[in-house]
Write a structure and sequence with these properties.
Elements lengths: L12 H23 L5 H21 L12 H25 L18 H23 L4 E7 L3 H13 L4 E7 L8 H4 L10 H9 L5 E4 L6 H11 L5 E4 L12 E5 L2 E5 L8 H35 L5 E7 L5 E7 L23 H8 L7 H7 L3 E3 L6 H7 L15 E3 L1 H4 L9 H16 L3 H15 L7
Parallel strand pairs: 1-2, 1-3, 3-4, 9-10
Antiparallel strand pairs: 5-6, 7-8
Length: 471
């Protein structure tokens, strides 16, 4: 029996560029510290190591190293700048907390001016890293590429969509091929951005003539014999050929590579918050949650006084929700109703609901009633960003009606999320609204990164607090 016959590869670019970044940061920072006459070289070396290591970690979780040269566009460069910003803030925080790294004063050559050495010190490697990444973009990618997709199928359309993004900054000549007559898939042809050019045998002739660079076979897994037949046909060419697994047959959601000893597997349902991802997510919640709690402490006090003055009852209200892995948690909220419902039957608030107090209606419209959930964040039962938790009774209802509903519980629930900034918050008066929520929640789980969380938080500040459907 052959062992290790199946290998997964992501290309050498991510590892190479990480190594290049690490070497450049270390070499440039140490050399510039010497040239700029910054004192205490031993301190510089230690701080430099913290900086370079932190840069790679932040780069990993801002998605900087997910971008290959062929699609490293302006957005990729913005990720690099964002990564540098986080790293600088992190290192400066360590400096201020330790108190022992204050020897980084002012440039001896710029005495009596207002340019601190650290500002110049940080800028030099960032400038060089931008040049290196842009050089890879210019010299490591083709100007155009010719791609063929075998199979006019939903999976083929998904492959087309992904390839258009992958080669977004290149001239892409892409076409579909299929052995079936075009009348068999007229409905799909109308959804394609690329032309249908005929049979696979015609594609083989194109490949032999050197007019195709890459071929993607996007047939359903049940068509195993046809896949083998097409692979046999492609083996008579020198074109790079790939199989696009039809995971849509099982789940349109999370797919990750995992190595179990010598066996390579692809998980269909898994959480991105495992291992280092879990540490990053928790650190994000603790740091941002603590900062936000300090900033809103006065607001919490004012709201609490407003609740006591406008209605009888406690300030806070805790209601059962489903949390991580579908386990029940107690979610904190400001009380906005004259009654406190937490039974097996919870009626969702509607417009003009008589149970809601006048002050409570204001809190619900502005989402200020959700602010106590930062207690849940610090406790660890919720995150700042994630799928919004629903009442237990609603969970039991929609898990039977909405496909893949429970996948949203593979991560901690959040105070805000991708669905909320896209307008899906408040009352659910039609099933499609819940389906859209779940769709956005799963999209968030699929594409999670530290950068995505920050974008959601920023958008929440400007557009996510007030909603026409929040009663």
């Amino acid at each position: 029996m052959l062992k290790n016959s199946l290998k997964f590869t992501h290309g050498g670019y991510p590892v190479f560029i990480k190594l290049a970044d690490f070497i450049v940061i270390n070499a440039v920072l140490i050399l510039s510290a010497l040239l700029l006459a910054i004192e205490s070289i031993s301190t510089i070396i230690m701080l430099n190591f913290i900086f370079s290591t932190s840069f790679l970690l932040f780069g990993e979780y801002t998605g900087l190293y997910l971008h290959k040269p062929k699609n490293m566009n302006i957005r990729g460069q913005l990720r690099l700048i964002l990564c540098a910003f986080f790293t600088i803030v992190f290192v400066e925080t360590i400096k201020s907390l330790t108190g022992g790294l204050q020897s980084l004063g002012y440039l001896s050559v710029l005495d009596n001016r207002f340019f601190p050495a650290t500002l110049v010190w940080y800028s030099i490697p960032l400038f060089l890293l931008l040049i290196i990444h842009l050089s890879f973009l210019k010299y490591s990618s083709k100007k155009n590429i010719r791609v063929a997709i075998v199979g006019v199928t939903p999976n083929g359309l998904a492959a087309e969509h992904a390839l258009l993004k992958e080669y977004s900054n290149m001239k892409l000549d892409m076409a579909f091929y299929d052995e079936r007559d075009a009348s068999r898939f007229n409905d799909l042809i109308n959804q394609m951005d690329s032309p249908f050019k005929g049979s696979v045998s015609g594609l083989v002739e194109e490949a032999k003539a050197g007019r195709v660079d890459e071929i993607y076979i996007a047939l359903p897994l049940v068509a195993l014999e046809r896949i083998r037949h097409f692979l046999s046909m492609m083996s008579d060419t020198t074109v790079d050929t790939y199989i696009v697994p039809d995971f849509n047959s099982y789940s349109t959601h999370m797919s990750q590579l995992r190595s179990i000893h010598n066996l390579q597997t692809i998980s269909i349902l898994s959480s991105p918050f495992e291992g280092v991802g879990s540490f990053i997510k928790r650190a994000e919640d603790l740091v941002l949650g603590s900062v936000i709690m300090v900033l809103i402490s006065s607001l919490l006090l004012v709201i609490g006084i407003g609740i006591k003055l406008t209605s009888r009852g406690p300030v806070f209200f805790k209601q059962d929700r489903y949390g991580l892995s579908g386990q029940k948690i107690k979610v904190w909220k400001f009380r906005t109703m004259r009654v406190m419902e937490n039974s097996d039957t919870v009626v969702q608030a509607t417009k003009g609901d008589p149970r809601v107090t006048r002050f409570g209606a204001f809190l619900r419209r502005t989402s200020l009633d959700e602010l106590p959930q930062f207690f849940n964040v610090l406790q660890g039962s919720m995150s700042i960003v994630g799928p919004r938790p629903h009442a237990v009774t609603h969970n039991e209802q929609y898990r039977k009606q909405v496909e893949n509903y429970m996948i949203r519980h593979k991560v901690k629930p959040g105070i805000t999320g991708l669905a909320q900034i896209n307008g899906y918050r408040g009352e659910i008066d039609a099933l499609y609204k819940m389906e859209k929520r779940v769709q956005y929640d799963i999209e968030y789980i699929q594409n999670w990164s530290l950068w995505l969380d920050i974008k959601i938080i920023i958008k929440t500040i400007f557009k996510g607090f007030v909603g026409k459907n929040a009663y």
